Amino acid sequence: MSGCLMIGMAFLLPAAMQAQTNYRRMASLGITGDTTDVKTVTRGGVALIGGGGDVEGAFKWMIDRSGGGNVVVIRASENYLYNETINKLGKVQSIETLLINSREVANDEEVATVIRNAEMLFITGGDQSNYMRYWRGTRTGDAINYLLNVKKVPVGGTSAGTAILTGFYYSGEGGSATSEILQNPYDSIVKLYNNDFLKAPYLSQVLSDMHFLKRKRAGRHVAFLSRIITDWKVFPRGIAMDEKTAVCIDEKGNAKVFGVSKAFFLSTDAKRPPEKCQAGQPLQWDAGHQAIKVYEIQGSETGNGNFSVSDFKAGKARGGEWSWWWVENGELKFSKLPGK
After folding, report:
1. N or C: which end of the chain has fewer CB atoms below 10 A?
2. How is the chain split into domains, by residue range?
3. Distance (Å, rounded) from C-alpha 206 to C-alpha 204?
4. The pTM is what?
5. pLDDT at 12 over 80
6. In sequence order, which ranges of the chain are alpha helices (DSSP H)?
7. What was the pLDDT predicted at 7?
8. Which long-range contacts (CB under 8 A, 24 or more apart) does 333-336 make?
């Protein structure tokens, strides 16, 4: 085949396929820019995005903390590229999207090296049970933890990508639980895991939830918290974001809320445990109408409020409102209706 014909065929290939043809990197869906390894001054941080659409302020926050280095996006299904989205929001060395859809790919040394060389990592939405099955206990998982705790670069996720960034996580492997599980917190659909995957700073005792107001998930989140207390004797914290909303946590554990809707910070207390959390029975967690203390912050384009994720101390909270949540015979009650 002549050289001219080969060049002509290359112009007919989709951009992602051209990138794979040119670079031949394992798992690569597409590259924007120059992926040569660079050294920039980075600041750590975690961006938890609630799904349902991009939050430009959160991406700008991560790009700023990357020092303009190499950005890697990882996913376990589909072939959507965030390259263009990220590229238009700030100047970076490169953006590469990787499809890591098996344990074989997740254990590939080249894939792990690409991740370890990143100055910013973003985990897309999808199905968090795939991330758990494919990445947990692999070189990919190790590489993500290296970025979080050693290299200390910004790491973000949206929807399923957010779910796996906290120490406690709901896998969704049997389907998506709804708030109906308040009637039986031990429903078979509830599969929770305890600090066996990613190790983000300040998030070991936290459970995240996404699409929070849009999909009316407050009840299921409370049921999850009750199970963690009952099963592991740990009194966890919760961070929940509505759609198109992000909680961005800096290297000191201080969080701001970006986006168009609200985020919630939930605190449990060993002095106020669930009164009844049993299989086949409605949850009872009243504690004098003070079972869970909740701080609610409205997001903004440039980041609003402040909440200390490092210790969840109430006195450090700014820019939001407090409320109490409790459960009476499987029904969630509020001193202030969330989002109102």
Report:
1. N
2. 42-334
3. 6
4. 0.92
5. no
6. 3-12, 15-23, 56-66, 83-87, 103-106, 109-116, 128-135, 139-146, 160-163, 218-232
7. 34
8. 333/289, 335/289, 336/296
- Is the confidence at residue 38, as pLDDT, over 70? yes
* 265 membership: H or E segment, kind and range: strand 262-267
Tokens 């909270």 appear where? Answer: 317
Return the closest-CA partner of residue 54 out of 168, 194, 163, 157. 157
Contact by Cβ (8 Å): 139, 29: no
Between CA 72 and CA 120 the distance in angstroms is 6
Paired with 71 in beta bridges are: 95, 120
Cα dihedral sign for 197, 37, 247, 305?
A: positive
As a whole number of angstroms, the distance between CA 258 and CA 55 comes to: 7
Q: Which two tokens stand for residue 92?
A: 């970076």
- N- to C-terminal Cα separation, the chain: 66
Which CATH number is 42-334's, of 3.40.50.1260, 3.40.50.880, 3.40.50.2300, 2.40.37.10?
3.40.50.880
The answer to whether the beta carbons of residues 112 and 146 sit under 8 Å apart is: no
Q: Which amino acid is at 145?
A: N
Evaluate the CA torsion angle 82, 142, 66, 23 in order and state its sign.
Answer: negative
Instruction: Give the phi and the psi of residue 97 in degrees, each rounded to 5.
Output: -105, 130
Question: Nearest 10 degrees: CA dihedral of 265, 236, 216, 243?
Answer: 50
Contacts (Cβ under 8 Å, ≥6 apart) of 139: 106, 107, 108, 109, 111, 112
pLDDT in tens, 156-188: 999 999 999 999 999 999 899 999 999 999 999
Per DSSP, 179 falls in state G
Could you tell me the two tokens for 331?
């029904």
Which residue's structure tokens are 């961006």?
47
One-letter amino acid of 180: E
Rounded to the nearest 5 degrees, what angle is found at the Cα of 203, between the Cα atoms of 197 and 204? 55
Tokens of 55: 């939050």
